[in-house]
Write a structure and sequence with these properties.
The chain is α/β, with parallel strands linked by helices. The protein is built from four helices and eight strands, in the order E-H-E-H-E-E-E-H-E-E-E-H. 23% of the residues lie in helices and 30% in strands. The relative contact order is 0.20. The protein binds 1-O-pyrophosphono-5-O-phosphono-alpha-D-ribofuranose, manganese (II) ion (MN) and magnesium ion (MG).
Length: 182
């Protein structure tokens, strides 16, 4: 549709609620990492929005780096077999790393990423995610900061895509059935 609004079914989490939750998470991160040197690692492309909005709320000085990964396997489903498309620029030795994600679905991407980054001798590795779907978990991942737990339904917006679209919606929502049928 010419207007993304025509493709929406409903707003699940408004821009205001996302922002208010990020205020709380940023305050926790500031407290937890006080006096430490923090490296934020955003996972492209979904994490772009939460990375930008979270980083701007922090008072702790941070470095921001990015990784692009791709899971092998069928279309929209994560397989757990991950390939690095763009690696970090930063050396992780003795660094405090905070992985920033938009969503944890099956957990397979993050569980792989976690063990990959942990093998690089960092000082610590933790995870911050805006959304988590507990009912979709195939593997348990220990997550330090979670914005919202949501039901196991397909959501878009705030970085999350359907066929690469809708990432630029400022809120999290569900798509109308006609979008999938078109
Ligand atoms: C999505 C999302 C997470 C991952 C979560 O990324 O942004 O990174 O899937 O799924 P999982 O918990 O089942 O592994 P995607 O692979 O679609 O790439 P994108 O961020 O570029 O959209
Ligand atoms: Mn992603
Ligand atoms: Mg995606």
């Amino acid at each position: 549709a010419a207007d993304m609004g025509d493709d929406l079914e409903r707003v699940l989490i408004s821009e205001e609620r996302l922002g208010a939750r990020l205020d709380e998470i940023a305050a926790q991160i500031d407290a937890d990492y006080a006096g430490k040197d923090l490296l934020l690692v955003g996972v492209l492309k979904g994490a772009v929005m939460v990375m930008a909005d979270l980083a701007r709320r922090l008072h702790t000085p941070v470095e921001m780096d990015w990784m692009a990964v791709s899971s092998y396997g069928s279309g929209t489903k994560s397989s757990g077999v991950v390939r690095i498309l763009k690696d970090l620029d930063a050396d992780l030795t003795d660094r405090h790393v905070l992985i920033v994600e938009d969503i944890i679905d099956s957990g397979l991407t993050l569980s792989w990423l976690l063990s990959n980054l942990r093998s690089r001798n960092p000082g610590s590795v933790e995870i911050a995610t805006m959304l988590r779907k507990p009912d979709a978990a195939k593997v348990e991942v220990d997550v330090r900061y979670v914005g919202f737990e949501i039901a196991n339904e397909f959501v878009v917006g705030y970085g999350l895509d359907y066929n690469e679209r809708y990432r630029n919606l400022p809120f999290v929502g569900t798509l109308a059935p006609h979008v999938y049928a078109d």
